[in-house]
Amino acid sequence: MARIDAVVATQVGDSSRPQQxxxxxxxxxxxxxxxASSASEAPDLAPxxxxxxxxxxxxxxxxxxxxxxxxxxxxxxxDRFKELVVQISDRRSGEVLKEIPSxxxxxxxxxxxxxxxxxxxxxx
Length: 124
Description:
By secondary structure, the chain is an alpha+beta fold.
């Protein structure tokens, strides 16, 4: 008898699961709508950081990375595109391990920019 009760309970549970999952999905959708509406109504409270704040943040991050990993972190500004370039190098050997964005990417970007410039200049 206990086995029959277990089988019946399993079948009842199986038939009620789709309804429960629909209720769960509706509840999640409602919560997502509530969060989205509250986020869209709230004004952007985070002002854009100043150059000095960015410099200070970069220095703090640089100290943490150097202490934790033994690698140097160098920040530079790409002159042509006014874009931040990060260089990670080994502290002992001075070897550059990674550059973000890479030199290849920067060269490709410059070539594409030149090609677009030629196309626009010729068609104008």
